[in-house]
Amino acid sequence: VLTSKVVSLAEVEGKLKDVSRLVVPRGAVLTPSARDELRNFAVAVASATGAPQTAKLKVVLATAETRFDPAPLGAALIGEGTVVERIPPGELTNAVDTLTRKVVVDKRLGLLITDMPAAALCLANRQRGVRAALAHSLAAVSEAVGMIAANLLVIDPRSRSLYELRRLTRELIRAGRPERSAVAPERLN
Fold first, then answer.
1. 76-79 own/partner pairs: CB under 8 Å, 24+ apart
2. Are 79 and 52 in contact (CB under 8 A)?
3. Is 163 helix (H, G, I), strand (E, B) or coil?
4. CA 124 to CA 119: how far, in whole Å?
5. CA 174 to CA 47: how far, in whole Å?
6. Residues 49-90: pLDDT tens digits?
7. Between the CA of residue 85 and those of 4, 136, 162, what are the distances in Å?
8. What does pTM read for this prediction?
9. H-helix or E-strand spanning residue 77
10. Which of 14, 120, 125 is nearest to 66 (CA)?
């Protein structure tokens, strides 16, 4: 999904692997080079039909112990119709405490972006009702949601593009918020 009224090659180049359809605003203009790129990857183009629908679940986005700026990611997710609540950046334990409280009490999906993923996972998974997983690939996110009913993703932003971060987050949102894990539900739920 793109929100710009003019879609150029720069917006699609290198981002079409595993994409079958591109949704653009009604009346958007695609440059000839963007059309060629879409044709090369056999990507269909569709127009959005009105305002984006709001997500059923709110995603809570937190950053801790990183120089990553979450504003572009939050804006991109909002542009795709996702409801995003941001927690101000801060120290890791405070961010994990605030985020896990929202995941458990408010029944939200959590996204923690940090340069310290191992510590974040350890801290988050100590909280009852939290099933945090490391989001290092789309397959890992899908597996974590299906297997343990992950409700919080931890992402290390170093050497990841905004596009990759959006895809990882979209995979969590697509899966929703399962309540019970498939593996060892008596221990993980």
1. 76/162, 76/166, 77/166, 77/169, 79/1, 79/3, 79/52
2. yes
3. helix
4. 9
5. 20
6. 654 444 456 899 999 999 999 999 988 888 888 889 999 998
7. 23, 22, 18
8. 0.68
9. helix 71-79
10. 120
CA distance 109 to 58: 6
Asked if residue 96 lies in contact with residue 121, where contact means CB atoms within 8 angstroms, the answer is: no
Q: In this structure, what token pair is assigned to residue 151?
A: 């409700």
Q: What is the DSSP string of 37-72?
A: HHHHTT-EEEE--SSPPPPSSEEEEEEESS----HH
- Could you give the CA distance from residue 103 to residue 94 in angstroms, rounded to a whole number? 14
**What parts of the chain have a pLDDT lower than 70?**
48-57, 177-189
Whole-angstrom distance, CA of residue 64 vs CA of residue 91: 6
Q: Which two tokens stand for residue 18?
A: 């595993």
